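REQUEST FORM: STRUCTURE PREDICTION
Request ID: SP-0412
Submitted by: Lab K.M.
Chain count: 1
Length (residues): 96
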Amino acid sequence: MQLPEFVLRLRDRMVARPEFRRWAGRFWATRGMSRNRAAALFDLAAGFVYSQILLACVQLDLFTILAEGPQTLSRLAARLNLSERAAEQLLEAAAA
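STATUS: Completed
RESULT:
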């Protein structure tokens, strides 16, 4: 059985409110569902970030450069055409 459209709109408005989400996270009957959905959303966002880090490494040919042997951060940054700070952030993200 499908819920009437106005009920679905009301539900959507309630769920969109931060106060309701905070309440749902504290209330014993909805806490589990709230946490599961938050965890699923976090996993989705994290997966996107991980894929973007991998894409950047592949597009910059980082793995081929590293296969040549150890490099200093400044040398690696120059070869990748990145600032040292950007190269360091990419390497830290890729290692995570």
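NOTES: Residues 60-96 form one domain.
Reviewed by: T.R.
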